[in-house]
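FORM 7B: Structural annotation worksheet

SECTION A. Query
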Amino acid sequence: MEPRLGAETGPRGTRRSVRTGPPEGCASAARTKIAGRRQPAPLPKKATEDEFSRRALGYSKFYGGKVGFAPKVPVRSLDDFSIWYTPGVAAVSKAIQAEPGLSFEYTGRWNTIAIVSDGSRVLGLGNIGPEGALPVMEGKALIYNYLGGVNAIPLPVRTKTEEELISIVKALEPSLGGVNLEDIESPKCFEVLDRLRAEMEIPVWHDDQQGTAGVTLAGLFNALEVTDRKLAGTRVVLCGSGAANVATERLLVEAGSDPRDIIVVDSKGILHPEREDIDQLMLKNKWKYEIAIRTNGDRVTGGLKEALRGSDVLVAAAHQGPAAIKPDEIAVMNRRSIAFFLANPVPEMLPAEAHAAGAEVVATGRSDYPNQVNNSLLFPAIFRGALDVRARTITDSMVIQAATELAGFAREKGLSPDYIMPTMVQWEVYPRVATRVGQAAVREGVARKKLTEDESMRAAMATIERSRKVMNQLRSGGLIVDPPE
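SECTION B. Predicted structure
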């Protein structure tokens, strides 16, 4: 999905020029940018959340949406309409009818995904409904396009049950190369993802599960290296048992952790087979039940502090902070401990407090602290790689390959306790991760298109660079204007 061009581009509520250029109300400002590219006022060095919120509201109203559509083909004369539409298009339709797989070659399906949400668990805001979820899905679509060259359609839907949601997503399959599920409450999200992955022939990805797990694993690879540890033998505590940590536990084990070295803590305490609600878990949340059975080899009981005593790593994906986790809980961990606080927008504990309590490597989901462990580092490249080879699914081993490449990129730059992950402005990491994912799909036999490594890299570079060029040219041409202050 690309920003709208010409007369369709421009801030909502302003008068528009007929063919190109910015809305009349912005014309003077746009001319200034064409001539001199005036930059918007920078945010304060340590901008407050209130300032980000104020600008988000103002900018969202000004632009009337973050993404739009643009043509990919030229319209040179009336004859072109006869080619792109009727009567010429009928030949393309008949060819696809005879061979449905050609829809990946003759249409934009190869590079199009939907970001589907029922709005039942949006960020830290809870169940705010599909309309409330739309700004988040639009933001994600923008990141997909700019960093991954993926045309992502934000698509919150009004559903109540798992079956309704599954039915809607399956009905969309003929138009899409993939699906990103987003902000769906637990445990509904587990059943929806498992069913759709099993029943669809395109990749279905739940970013709150697989994305968070993948980027956490990448960060952990490097944090372990900084603190002279290996994944095998490291004792890990997962605080929170929602979508993120259920998937993180599975991916850690797939990557080499011994499940007996993992302890999961939820709002009722440590999960273990003898917990009093274990039968209820078996009936109502089989994913959590299975974790209770296979983890916690020492059968530790109690709460977070008991779980952390003698542990090496904490991955918290639980509650808004900044006081959800206490310094005395971090203090009982082993020396040179690692702590990831992934709640957004406010991490479970602020990094300075965690360091003071003894943690050596601290990461959060925020860009204004060192070591941002954020899904945006992964999902654009995961789908870029999967779409380039027309993958039928995204396996856990493909995610581990992506995490390995992401970690390797940071390692090449030089690791330190304050640098274990690339940042989102190091855009060259995205085609590298995409290539790794695409090649993993080819090796695993889930790719329709058997690209070589060089072909994967060239395809990813070309598509991502095109998106960046489109953005730059729209800005330099005054079709995307800077926002008012």
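SECTION C. Observations
The two ends are 27 Å apart (CA to CA). The beta strands are 112-117, 151-156, 178-181, 204-206, 236-239, 262-266, 269-270, 313-316, 337-341, 359-364.

SECTION D. Sign-off
Analyst initials: ____
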